[in-house]
Amino acid sequence: MTSQYQIRADYDARTIVVYQAYSPAIADAALRAGRFVAPFSFHRMTWIKPSFLWLMHRSNWARKPGQERILGVRITRQGWEEALSRAVLTTADPAAVAHAAVHVQWDPERSPRGAALNHYSIQVGIGRHLIRTFTDDWIVGLTDLTPQVRKAATLIQTGHAAKAQRLLPTERAYPLPQELAALCPDRDRGPAARAAPWG
Length: 199
What we know:
27% strand, alpha+beta, 199 residues, four-stranded mixed beta sheet, 9 helices
């Protein structure tokens, strides 16, 4: 049986795609430069999410103020796994969370219409001490997905969910290395295990 906490993503042999929502000013500057530059903030945590539909729920399909642009951020799998190896669950001891370079939390995955599903989606918060590594070393490409998002949202709203589905990225179980596999909370291990720190 599939774990409720399995990481699912669009990935290839070397890279993985994560998603972020930004204001037009941040997105346009990043797309022009091919990497994040001002007005992107290098002084606060930035959250990356491999679940496209979770970000659609969070940004209301690019309709929320400040989240009108959706970027697909392709990063190295080496960087992704380094982030996970340094992460602490946000439900861990507050002192551990405060000192962690990376935060992780699990939230209910969402359907195209925003309904909560019975399995979870991972969010990874890259702390300010690692942001330059994320932007300068891990990112290999940025893609503006906003037109695709708007088209899919219109199709869903007008009763054409099957057509919208063809516009959504294909996500599959991500093969974590053995040393990281235990970091995904297992539904059979109970709340205490899920509150344990990562790494």
